[in-house]
Amino acid sequence: MDRTAPPSDGPLPAAEPTGELAEPVTGPPVVAVVVTRDPGPWLEEALESLTGSDYPSLTVLVLDAGSAVDPTARVAAIAPGAFVRRLPPGADWATVANDVLEVVTGATFLLFVHDDVVLDPDAVRLLVEEAYRSNAAILGPKLVDYDRPEVLLEVGLAIDRLGVPHSGIEPGELDQEQHDAVRDVFFVSSTAMLVRADLFGELHGFDARTFPGAEDLDLCWRARVAGARVLVVPDARARHRRADKLHDPEDAVSPAAAERSRLRALLKSASGWSLLYLVPIGFVLAVVEVIAFFLTRRAARARALVGAWTWNLRNLGDLRAARRETQAHRRVPDVDLRFLQVRGSARVRGYLAGSLHTEDRMRALSRRGRSAADTATTQLRAPATIAALVFAFLLLVGSRQLIFGRVPVIGQLPGWPGLSELLATFTSAWRYVDLGSTAPAPPDLAVFSLASTLVLGASALARTIVVVGALPLGVFGAWRLGRRITGPGSAAVVAALAYGINPLPRNALAAGRFGALVLYALAPLIVVGLLRLGGYFPDTPDRRRWRLLIGTGALVALTTAAWPPALLLPLVVLLALALAEPLTRPRGAARADGSVRALLTGALAVTGIGLVLLLPWPLAYLRAGDRLAALGFAFRVDLDLSDILRFQTGPNGAGVSGWIVLGAALLVLGLASGPRLVWATRAWILALVSLAIVWGVARFAPDTLMPAVEGLLVPAALGISLAVGLGVAAFIEDVSRFHFGWRQVAAIGGAVALSFPVFAFALDSLDGRWHMPGDDWNENLAWMRSEAPDGRFRVLWLGAPAILPVDPVVHGDVGYGITNNGPGDTRTSLPPPNGGASARIGDAVDLLRARRTVRIGSVLGPMGIRYLAVPQRAGPGVDRTDPAPATLLVGLAEQLDLVRLEGPPGLDLYENRAWIPGAAVLPPRAAPRGEVAPLPEALADGVVRPVLDGRRVRAGTVVWSEAYAGAWQASSDGRELPHGRVFGWANGYELSRRGTVSFEFANQWWRYPVVVLELALVIGAWLLWRGSARFTLPWRRAPKDET
Amino acid sequence: MTRRARAVVIAVVLGCLLGAAALDRGSSAGGGDGDAFVALGPRVPEAAAQTAAWYCAYGTSEPGGRADERVFIANVGTRLARARVSVSSGPDRAAQMRTYDVQPGAVSGIRVADILATPEPGVLVEVTGSEAVVTHAVTGNGDGAIGPCARDAAPAWYFAAGTTVRGAELWLALFNPYADDAIVNIGFLTDAGPLAPSELQGFVVPGRSRVTVPVHDQARRDNLVATEVIARRGRVVAEQSQVLDGFDGRRGIALSLGSPGLSRRFEFATGSVSAGRTETLVLANPGNTPTSATVRTRLDGGALEPEVVSVAPRTAVSVDLGARVPAGVGFSVGVRSPVPLIAETLTVQREPFPQNQRGIATAVGERRPARRWVVAPSRVSGTADLVAALNPTSRPVTVRFRVRGVADAGLDAEAATRRVPAGRRVLVNLGELGVAEGGLLLVDATGPVVVERDASGNPRYTGFTVSHAVPDLDH
Prior knowledge:
Chain A is an alpha+beta fold. Helices cover about 45% and strands about 15% of the residues of chain A. Chain B is mainly beta.
């Protein structure tokens, strides 16, 4: 069909469109709107495709968005009948496109096309025909690559619940007509979009604030909400050159703009009910993504995500108005649009889609060219990548119950209270731990507060992220370390995976060893920092060394806050490398590539920085005395050499496969040569040092209290993993240099054998929680919290130290710990370094386990201990039992003032009938002054009255069962009460007449400047870290040229 | 690195691993004491104990009761002891308490009825400040009995000697000193077979109360009735009292503190057979494995061939110890069995013994030889108050009998020192040694011994009694 002469008002140069279109010959009038700015040479071809269209009623309108050179002449040359309208520069594509609302009347359809799109001659006709046939309002053609038309780019788009686009087209997917069916889609791209003009007007065109990135999504979404259909018509084809200056260049659509536009579209168009859950889920997932992006050093993407939320918050007023208007058009509920959206976990799927398959990714891949796509495809097919993906999958499977359920409170993995409680505890001058202490609060409370803040106060979520994230973070760190040592490629991945499948972190999870878990996660990064400081990686520029020093020191501080023995990690690494030095020094060389001396300086420096960042907390440890439990020394190493070498410290791991990893690590010593053998030697010496510490204690001093063995073995796990990675590197490079022989056979055998530990890892993943219990004692004993209104009380946990859900203090073979007003949380973690009054609890435990009293309740009563909990296993349902010592159980059973309660299976629970509330009034002179342990007989039931807030109590001796401190003050009706020491350790006040009583710690004031100081230290370090490029370490300054 | 360096590295690594493997020897003993022996039974409290509790289960304190009870608190230590005596009469009633100060070396005798008169008194004595030993005595039916109170409540108790023949009453007292209720199963091993009355299964002993079970109403007219008490929940103290009304010529009251466990060995130190005195050993096998127990009767100055006694599962058998022993010869008895069981003697003194020396006595065999024993009160009889020290070991030991000096009276007084050959015993008469009544006797030995008392003719506690002394297991 020939096209009729264009209904033009005449030549176009400098002419303004009249707004009146000529009568169409046949078919409804369509105006093709080409928005352009500084068009390239492709404009002509795009216009030619329009003028060559077989649709008879097509008018071309070119909107020039402020091109430097007026394109009118070029337009006129190709499409003399076209209209050109020039607009001032600066306007974006959507704003310019909306100009049609002003200047076009009488058109039935508007066809928006980019200036780099070449439509097939029949495309417009097919689109219009389908519009009528299907009563659709917005239609899009199939988009293919301009240069390779057989490659599909887009056949309509879907979104997930959070508005992330999903094309469903694989990168480089060939067009084999597999998508050639007209169908409803959620939206079509503005690259080529036929829109019913009346609807476009009704919707007031594009929302300019969703450009760039989501103007098409937003328009289609609003159309969908208004009840209009959006179709893709694959028979109509358009070739897309992806050169449009307004859309396609690298800087045209920044991630920040795209994210904020997408979020705006979501917030506008989703229904109110949908937003109730979409907003929190979207926010949480955004936080997770931000963390992931930061960890993977994609700060721009992270900032984009943060910026999307803040930008929309800043523009809340405008957003609300836009949303009101959108919702005013609503004819269709959200549920009717679900079939056009991607199913499943919306954000996660969106993230995966965004990473692999979305239009964004396609565009990015396209921009980087075909070769980049090929490279990505090749990498995905590489064995190491496949192994990494399998590992990631197993990690997800193995952690699923923790991610989607909860991380139980076991061992030294206490729950995190709310943000306000965390902050209040951290800033309190009095620690309500054991019987109370003035020791500074541990800095991990501040870290937990920060983590909770990042997820808007959802501390449980923050805890889950930290705990579950430790394993992948450790693997990431090992990969970075491995990459430095073995070079990029498979070897580093294998080293990381060997670290990842080591049963150590899984057993740390199963036993609730939080500190060991944190060390596992951060140790590789600390070792990287130390080795760089020691000059073992010569590529480190001097100008970055301050930054490195502070960064590594901060990591040491972070780890030490969670697990005090971690402070020694730099020194362990130093020791290992010093021992390895004679073995690795090249013949005749003064030293190897690294310098033990530099490492010594670096190790001391990072340790010092770590300590400084933790101030004033470490100062309290100067008085640790016999309470090494405060440093985590609370466990006995009950392992034989076989267990130690296989890292079989708990239920995870699978017997013989542990030997295979060890064997593979040993293999490297025979396979490797040159620098790889040097590094293998260092790795092995590091492992041997760590193994020797653990085995030496287990063999020669089994009664010695040590930190959690899972933490002690982390350097060994790291060393052996590196050795395995180096073995792979040697296999790839060194072995090929030898003639075929035992090396090749051994290397192949080693590679095959490594599948066994992977299998063991897979087996451990089956339960979805790495053998952590599904429940915990905290849940079972939650009812205790409802008893707090009867008066403050404490719970004394007793039993085998390995299974207590507290940081245990150990006397003999009995561990104990105190929690307040029910099961504990992280506020009662880490007993104060200086025993002080709290040592009396230990004395009482000694009495009990030696069966030297039948009235332990009377001894513990003044301490406010109301319940004694004796777990026999780490948590409910745990198969493995670790019974409390028999003498303790017998001792408890023969107590006359304890009542055995019906506890959950696996937990013996006693109530102390001689309990005195933490704040109580006793008859005058009933509270003995001086060193009197048991209560006198007068304190029978009914004699003691709790002191409750706002309630009047009778005259008597008021006992405040916190360790005696002069700063504790009690007042009654405005009068300060005389203060003295009762029961030899507690605070007592004489209340001469009936009244209310309140307590106050008078020294709270000094804690605030200390907190400010702590904050200043951290901020100062951060500022130094950020701006430290201009500093160089004194010992690293280049010597001056003496000439 | 050179080949030599590689070899050195491999040697170092493998050397370390193999060296550790050689030294490891699979030893990784933890510090746990899961297998630690948990001492049960009467014993002198250790010096560091803050509070020591004693539980006296059997006795009555109401006027005209069948077993009027008296408690003795003996201060073995060197500091003032403060004893709080609580007498509970049931779960719903508050216990009556009194506090007594006992000087070092002194023995305080307290009539339970003076604190609370009740038919079911459960007596709890808590001692602080010093080490003290608590015994109690019951009188009734023209006889008396004395024995140590229990130091522990236990989940199981066993008795061997008991009879419910015509004219016999067998009372089982269960004392639950704790606040929680205890639930026990009570069963009997009779010569007619095991018996588990349904009303005594899941038997509730309310907290802080004592319950007495008339065994003779459950196991009627059985010549041998061995008793086992197994707690399904909680712990109790079990004591048993045999009462014979003289129908078959035996008359008196006996008191036995049960054994909280079975054992493969028992020792009895005070055997003798004479006109009017008979001594029967009862062996009960509560287990399901038959056993052959070896009974060694060691005559003073002679020996008898060991007697092998077969004890079928869930049965009790008796052995007449006097059958093979010449009249007037003293002896001791040792029982060995490959299967744990319970052994107890029933001793009867009747005519021609004088009236005040007639009676019956039961004693569960001692299974814990010790180097120090406490006899308190030291002397209860003006006529025949014998203390026997048996050396069950294979080496001779020297035994010293000392009377503890009271408060300001100075040092302990040495009463006698005897050398005891292996497998022999020594017998001293406290009256002949000049030991005063109501004092405290310490028996120290250079090796493990078993000390037992055999007393009769006490003017205050009329009759005859046999009981073990209280060992000091920490000495």
